[in-house]
Amino acid sequence: MSETISIVCPHCSARLNAKAALIGQRRPCPKCKKEILIAPAPTEDDTAEKKTSGAEGNNGRLGSSGEGGLANQIAAAAAEGLTSHRFLLRLNRHHLYYICDRSKVFASWENNGQGWQVRAQSGMVSAVRNQHLLPQQGDFRLVEIHTEHTAEGIRLRGLTCYRLADRWALRSLARGDDEIVEKIVDYAGLNRDQKNAIRFALRERFMHDVWQDAGPLTDFLGNADYHSHQVLCSE
After folding, report:
1. Could you give the CA distance from residue 195 to residue 139 in angstroms, rounded to a whole number?
2. What is the number of other CB atoms lying within 10 angstroms of the CB of residue 228?
3. CB of 87 within 8 A of CB of 77?
4. How many angstroms separate the CA atoms of 76 and 50, rounded?
5. What is the structure's pLDDT at 172?
6. Same structural domain, 118 and 37
7. Contact assessment for residue 20 and residue 41, using Cβ atoms and an 8 Å cutoff
8. Scanning 49, 72, 114, 193, which has its CA 20 to 30 A from the CA of 66?
9. Residues in contact with 74: Cβ distance below 8 Å, sequence separation at least 6, in sequence order
């Protein structure tokens, strides 16, 4: 039997059980349907230990490695209430990511070992090897496409959109896959051109049958809701 952990929904305070293998991923709460980060509910001992040890050894920041591992870092963040400010701890290896400027997809990432790819005249190229293409400033959105691998194949499960810092955000694409999460400053909606760009990118990436079970996502990308930052498909 797979190990489970106890979690608490920060939106509706429901106490839930989740597979330990999902730690660090995001899933919709079965009670209120809002997305939550899978992290162990802090105990009194965890909170006390965190207060006494402090975060000085890591300058108060959470990384993808270090003493205790990612699971303990997530638990420590939950104990201090930091998860609502960090948005993402790292890119989810099962999801896809796109970065949009005001009208098109500028960069993309998937867990294939190639790192971030950025738009050039010849197509998408490596951000690491083409740092001159990375702007110093601009209005950019990080779009997280939730996917799930099932026995029937890959399925689209939703979308979450984040606003990136106006300055230096995209320069981080050349420093590593996960560096961009530190540049997230808020949730954000998508304008019409951005929605069209994401819809086109997904239709190029996936066969038609993948879209059949993603009605809420396709509806969202085609409607005039330019304020909502998230849509989730029922499982």
Report:
1. 15
2. 14
3. no
4. 7
5. 96
6. no
7. no
8. 114
9. 23, 24, 37, 39, 40, 62, 83, 89
Return the minimum-mean-pLDDT range out of 17-26, 96-105, 144-153.
17-26
Per the structure, how many domains does the chain have? Answer: 2
For residue 68, pLDDT beyond 70: no
pTM score, whole prediction: 0.66
Average pLDDT, the chain: 81
Q: Which of 24, 54, 86 is the last residue of a domain?
A: 86
N residues, the chain: 235
Give the Cα-Cα-Cα angle 92, 116, 145 (nearest 5 degrees): 40
Amino acid of residue 202: L
Give CA separation, 205 vs 67, 96, 126, in Å: 38, 10, 18
pLDDT band of 65, cuts 50, 70, 90: very low
Domain that residue 197 falls in: 96-232
Mean pLDDT of 106-123: 95
**Is there a single domain that holds both residue 206 and residue 127?**
yes
- H-helix or E-strand spanning residue 106: strand 105-109
Q: Residue type at 146?
A: H
| CB hemisphere CA count around 76 (13 angstroms) | 21
Higher per-residue pLDDT: 72 or 36: 36
Same domain, 55 and 73: yes
Does residue 179 belong to any structural domain of this protein?
yes
Q: Which two tokens stand for residue 17?
A: 């059980």
Q: What is the pLDDT of residue 20?
A: 75
**pLDDT at site 125:** 97
Q: Which is nearest to 144 in space by CA: 94, 79, 101, 214?
A: 94
